[in-house]
Design brief:
The protein is mainly beta. It has a domain of 182 residues. It is built from 1 helix and 22 strands. It is elongated, with a radius of gyration of 20 Å.
């Protein structure tokens, strides 16, 4: 059986279930990181693989819609200037290297208004990973199917939605909405107004600094929670679960209370509650860390 796995390399690594590919059966790993595509590696079992790169710029006026084709991924990272610089990292397979290269060379950007996607051969295996270098105060909508989304170091308004793929948010800020169906969401940072939700996927939250500036609401349905809170955290953090969820809490706030009581809720840190994290039908793990 051929299986497909995605790995999104950011500051946080994901391990996600293998997902069947919508094209021909294949085994592939995708490493999505650098804007020059130097770390974009794809493998199709039993086939030759070739690569291509496309680049374009879009003025940063109005919302940008990023829509990789099925099995493709997207990474939004901080850039300079006043434009969105978009790199398409393309990989394709074939029975020979020449055939694979021909397929890769046929993949093109598709631009419709403010929507960016890609198109390519109707047959064969190929994928596109978009890397978007964005200026400050971004306004981006990004959606993937069977692929990862990474959001790293940017500020502004972002709506991220993934089906059968992970979402990673690392040191971003602003108004961020993240939804994952059958995939994990990971958050690491100290500020922003975040609305995070998974269906059949885990949520991992790693807080940094001394407090959360803004608001973070994270909800998992049928998925576990992993929470890491710095010692002496100066914002209130509330973690809760459904009644029968197992808990493993190593934070000081858990030492003097019975997590097996009916409340299934723990409050960490001090001050006004600005972080709420909950799960229905999922286990909970809480750890403390140093700043």
């Amino acid at each position: 059986m051929h299986r497909l796995a995605f790995a999104l390399l950011s500051s946080i690594a994901f391990v996600t279930p293998a997902v069947p590919d919508g094209r021909d059966g294949q085994g592939r790993t995708v490493d999505l990181e650098a804007a020059d595509c130097s770390r974009n590696h794809s493998i199709w079992t039993g086939y030759e693989t070739a690569y291509a790169v496309r680049r374009m710029s879009v003025p940063a006026a109005g919302r940008l819609d990023v829509r990789p084709p099925s099995n493709g991924g997207a990474r939004i990272e901080r850039g300079g200037g006043r434009e969105y610089s978009i790199t398409a990292c393309i990989a394709a397979s074939g029975s020979t290297f020449a055939e694979a290269q021909q397929r890769a060379d046929e993949v093109r950007f598709v631009v419709s208004g403010r929507r960016i996607s890609a198109d390519g051969p109707s047959s064969g295996n190929w994928n596109v990973q978009f890397v978007v270098q964005a200026p400050d105060n971004v306004d981006i909508s990004v959606e993937t199917s069977n692929g990862p989304i990474g959001i790293d170091g940017v500020s502004g308004r972002i709506d991220a939605r993934a089906a059968n793929g992970p979402i990673g948010i690392d040191d971003a800020s602003g108004d961020i909405t993240a939804r994952a169906q059958n995939g994990p969401i990971s958050v690491r940072g100290r500020r922003g107004r975040f609305d995070v939700e998974t269906a059949n996927g885990p949520i991992s939250v790693e807080l940094s600094g001394s407090r959360w500036d803004g608001r973070l609401d994270a909800r998992a349905h049928n998925g576990p929670l992993s929470v890491r809170v710095p010692r002496g955290y100066q914002s209130g953090v509330e973690v809760s679960s459904s009644r029968h969820s197992p808990w493993n809490c190593r934070a000081g706030a858990c030492r003097d209370r019975d997590i097996d009581d009916g409340a299934r809720i723990v409050r960490l840190g001090t001050g006004q509650t600005t972080v709420t994290i909950s799960t229905v039908n999922g286990p909970v793990t809480i750890n403390e860390s140093n700043w």
